[in-house]
Every structure is written in C-alpha cells, then in structure tokens.
C-alpha cells in the first residue's frame, strides 16, 4: 500500500537502526518467513518487528482464528496502525528484549513459533545477543524461529556474526531460498530447537 511505504520511509529516516527497511516486505517474503506457523492446534505465535503488517496478515491467514498471535513493535506509529488494521492480533508497543515478561503478562508460558522482521544486521553485537537470548528463552524446546536478511547485507560483519549466533543458539539452522520478488531481494533463515 502506498501509505504503508510512506510510513515506512518516514520512520526509517527517523530511526534507521530500529526500522531497517524503507518499504514493507512482499507477500512472497511473508509466505516464506511464516511457513513454520502450524496448520493445526492452538499455537502461540510471536511476531517481532511487524511494521505495517505483511507478516501479520500471512500469520493470520495461516492461523484462521486459532491460537494466540502476539506482535511486538517498538515503533509507536506502526504499532497503532497495526492494532487498528488487525484487531484480533495482540499488538504490543514494546521491546522484543522483554519477550519473556510480555508472554507471562498474558498468561502465556512459551512461544511455539517466533517470526522476526527485526533488522538483525543493523544491530550491534550486544543487541543481537540480548534479543536472541530473549527469543530462545521464551521459546518451547521444539519451537521454530524464522527471520530474513537482505541480500546486500549478507557480506556485512554484523550479518555474519548473527548467522554464527543463530548456530550457537539453535540446534538446527537451515538457510531458505532467496526471495527475489522482494525489494530488495531477501534470504530466509529457519531455526529450530533453541539450545538451553
């Protein structure tokens, strides 16, 4: 949507290290990143950095009213837009580093799936570690985590450091296919079974 692109660009210009993108993700990328959301049961799905909601829409499509979908967005204008756009989603204007507490506040024990739209390559080492630790501590032992990186960021030292951190924090990390039909093209990471 044109308004979403304008909001994204404006918020990116205000805080490029927390937004990390100049436009919303494509439907193709949303489908690839949200693939671990189960088709059955009552899962707890946590979405980090939902922005204007392309992943949110795909998660909602997959859940079809089942489970609990919690979306944590640090940017207030985007959190407000998301809450208005998706009234059935538990939208929180907050920090993903507080994920464990946010789940407990809602009476939820663990996340079965964590879908991340956070700009990992834009974060310094300490922030990457803090956030990924919060994620893995909040996940069920068989939980799934997915995120992505833009192709142009892959050679960056911060992106390489994040990939190493994923391997350190999860028993299984499988690189997905490149989603060329996204601006810019993006590469998906699928991780399972957080290490205690």
Write the layout of secondary structure elements.
Layout: H1 2-14, H2 16-19, H3 27-33, E1 44-48, H4 54-63, E2 68-73, H5 76-85, E3 90-93, H6 99-105, E4 111-116, H7 125-138, E5 139-150, H8 157-169, E6 170-179, E7 186-194
Parallel strand pairs: 1-2, 1-4, 2-3, 4-5
Antiparallel strand pairs: 5-7, 6-7
Helix pairs in contact: 3-4, 7-8
Question: Could you describe the 3D structure shown?
Answer:
The N and C termini lie far apart (41 Å). The chain is 40% helix and 27% strand. Strands 3-2-1-4-5-7-6 form a 7-stranded mixed beta sheet, with helices on both faces. The chain has a single domain (2-194), classed as 3-Layer(aba) Sandwich (Rossmann fold). The model is unreliable at 15-22 (pLDDT under 50). It is α/β, with parallel strands linked by helices and 196 residues long. α3 (27-33) crosses α4 (54-63) and α7 (125-138) packs parallel to α8. The chain is built from 8 helices and 7 strands. β4, α7 and β5 form a beta-alpha-beta unit.
Classify the secondary structure makeup into a structural class. alpha/beta
Count of runs of 4 or more consecutive helical residues: 8
Return residue spans where pLDDT drops below 50 for at least 5 consecutive residues. 15-22
Q: What fold name stands as the CATH topology?
A: Rossmann fold
CATH superfamily: Vaccinia Virus protein VP39
> How many separate structural domains?
1
* Total strands: 7
Q: What's the story with the biggest beta sheet?
A: 7 strands, mixed
Helix share, percent:
25-40%
What are the secondary-structure elements, in order, as H or E? HHHEHEHEHEHEHEE
Q: Measured on Cα atoms, how large is the radius of gyration? A: 15 Å
Strand content: 25-35%
| Head-to-tail CA distance between termini | 41 Å
Tell me which CATH architecture applies here. Answer: 3-Layer(aba) Sandwich
CATH hierarchy, class? Alpha Beta
Major sheet strand order: 3-2-1-4-5-7-6
What form results from the Cα inertia axes? globular
């Amino acid at each position: 949507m044109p308004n979403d692109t304008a909001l994204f660009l404006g918020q990116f210009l205000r805080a490029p290290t927390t937004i990390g993108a100049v436009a919303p993700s494509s439907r193709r990328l949303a489908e690839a990143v949200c693939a671990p959301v189960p088709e059955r049961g009552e899962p707890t799905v946590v979405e980090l950095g939902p922005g204007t909601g392309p992943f949110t829409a795909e998660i909602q499509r997959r859940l079809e009213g089942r489970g609990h979908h919690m979306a944590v967005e640090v940017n207030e204008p985007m959190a407000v837009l998301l809450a208005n756009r998706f009234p059935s989603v538990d939208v929180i204007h907050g920090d993903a580093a507080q994920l464990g507490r946010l789940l407990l506040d809602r009476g939820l024990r663990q996340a079965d799936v964590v879908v991340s739209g956070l700009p990992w390559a834009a974060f310094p080492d300490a922030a990457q570690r803090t956030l990924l630790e919060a994620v893995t501590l909040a996940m069920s032992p068989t939980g799934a985590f997915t995120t992505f990186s833009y192709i142009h960021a892959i050679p960056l030292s911060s992106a390489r450091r994040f990939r190493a951190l994923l391997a350190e924090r999860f028993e299984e990390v499988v690189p997905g296919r490149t989603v060329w039909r996204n601006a810019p093209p993006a590469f998906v990471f699928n991780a399972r079974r957080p290490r205690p």
